[in-house]
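Tutorial sheet, problem 5. The two components below are modelled jointly, 827 residues in total.
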Amino acid sequence: MPITLPSFIEVERMGQTLLRMSGISKRFAGVHALKGVDFELESGEVHGLLGENGAGKSTLMKILAGIHPVDEGEIFIEGNKVSINSVKDAQTHGISIIHQEISLVPHLSVAENIFLGKEPVTKTGWIDWKKMREETRKALQQFGLELSPEMPVKKLTVAQQQMIEIIKAVSFRAKMIVMDEPTSSLTEKEVEFLFQIIGQLKEQGVGIVYISHRMNELFAITDRITILRDGTLIGTVRTEETTTDQLISMMVGRELTQYYIKDSAPVSGGEVVLSVRNLSKKGVLNDVSFEVRKGEILGFAGLVGAGRSELMKCIFGLDSFDKGEIRIDGRPLTVRTPNDAIKNGIVYVTENRKEEGLFLIRSVQYNITIKLLDQFIKWFRVNARFENQKTRQFINELSIKTPSPDQEVRNLSGGNQQKVLISRWLATNPRVLILDEPTRGVDVGAKAEIYAIMNRLVKEGVSIIMISSELPEVINMSDRIAVMYKGGIRTILHRDEFSQETIMHYATGG
Amino acid sequence: MSMVYGIRSFIRANLGILTGLVVLCVVIAVLNPNFLTTNNLLNVLRQTSTNLYLALAMTMVIILGGIDLSVGSVMALSGVVTAMLIALFGAPLLLAVAAGLLVGTLFGALNGYVAATTVIPPFIITLATLNIGRGAAYVLTDGQPVRVMSDAFNFIGSGYIGGVLPTPVLYSIIFVILCYLIMNKTKMGRYIYAVGGNPEAARFSGINIRRVKFFAYTFSGFMAGFAGIVLASRMFSGQPTAGVAAELDAIAAVVLGGTSMTGGYGRIGGTVIGALIIGVLSNGLNLIGVSSFWQYIVKGIVILIAVYADVFKRKTA
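Model answer (structure tokens):
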């Protein structure tokens, strides 16, 4: 179907530099998120932005959108130096961002959402509903959407909502639109439609920054691709002159030596402890099968949204699944609640320790012993000696730095909080320990300590499943690595096949 | 934990409102020395007791992250049921009391079941059962008080143990100890703090959140039933209008005691002091001769000041 854009978009000149960001630096509480990054966008260009999780893509775009103030560096729009201090500033400069999470107001109508904050008014000062509806109807028609302007947004599909976001963006007379992983929840057909619209926007001279991990999409629609790694600009390449392999080697390539290395030999002969067969959940997991052996560390690599945490939540009984089988020691296991998993020695240490893990306003002792209560509380009798002893044992073994066992956990550092959470689960004597991003947000010292704990555990015969988005970590610690992409295991790599490039190749759909 | 250490930590944890309670007592005693007589002090404790029963259970529900608005109505209903069974059907005392307690417990269980298995906010659930309970009390009695002529029944709420200790005060002591033990010495107590403090973490830890919610609301219903029977006994009748807005006094006691309305934080000891402040206030204002209309206004102001001071203290601590 032919698509013409709404009349409120001004046709711009093509091929001119719309945006130039130069020497952009940003620090967050000690973390150097961006280090002197340059970025350019021309009118009528689709510019891909590529990098691992945490490479700084989102930070760069949030600076552009006025969400984060810039520490150092300059921003030029159409040759004029500008300062962007708020979202409003960004909008005035014609910058519009479509976030990964849709930011429409669900209860309001399509028209109300599109005109949110810039409602047309009549001469008497009331909202001009008629005009709003008319303009919206026109825009919807031109985008080929058969929707009523009065329909509440919550009733639309995700793809339709995304289209509304785009209409909203162009109705701001956006000259630049940033799309952050826009296809992550779209079907193939909807992706095609999105690309059609991007093509039209391009022709109208709108510049588009396209953030995605999916190589085939980047090759399909971008003109240039900029690669970031650890907050540094690695380079900008013309899409037609590059290859997947080149992009991947630019994305990865951190030194492996600065990381701790698992010191036990890879386990191959140990018996299978946990096996998962053909596990599927509609729209989330797709026929996942793998097994873990005694004393093995099985790494799970993949990009955000690949379904790694979702898989583990199914195994741990936090989520239900449609099909598939979980076996422990060869016998089938039904997990309806986490306790079913815990009773069988499977425990899950969440990646969001503050939101899903710890009881922050309670003590270290409370947090460590909450899964042990059966062992020391009988009716109204608390065996305080046992409780103190257990707590002290874990504080010592995991060298948790806390002034006392009664300290509230919220006052501990990230690394020590993580160790408290791991202690809680070690206290249950698990056989399969699932660690989800175990070193996220912890300092280098605590990281090494967590690796040492993992090493000790596998020597004691515990099996570990480790989800990690840090390639060096997953390479150095794992005996095997399962790489996930779009809800399925793309491959399981053995030690001799490990390399950052190979993992990234599979993780991006190769 | 030694007794001395326990008392010291109790004082430290509740220093703010303890000071408030002492100041309040001193001011009232200066204005009317009769306040400090043993008789009157026991009177204060007796008047405080039914509110305290409700407030103790309410503390658990609020720490859990919930609220129970139905307790005032459930009180009336259980009082009416017990009174009717004795006065109209000649039922044995124990059976009548058991029936009253059962009515309260069932209402609590209903609140707990719905709160545990649906996403309806507890405010709404218990607002509904508040109306149902009150309505049932009116329907059963046709809106009339049910008089009970039974010395045994009257003893429950108006008797004295050893000629000195009023029975409701004895129950208070027993329930305070029981609730303290539940919150500090049982798995359930720890789980209540866990669910209220971080429901997601509780779920990820494999804590049976439904069972915890069901327990807390059921217990609250039981306590409301008990309070209803004691109140009916003190009034020599089951009255369908009993306990109107009693839930608000209970919530006030809990909040004065420093329990967080958002859940996860609070102490039984705090609630005891909170209930005492409310009891002393109404007793003292009566002694001084402040009209009951003005008493509401004073109570409101005291709640505002106390909670503000508490929040302020915690921010600066």
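Marking note: The CA atoms of residues 261 and 459 of chain A lie 14 Å apart. Full credit if you identified this.
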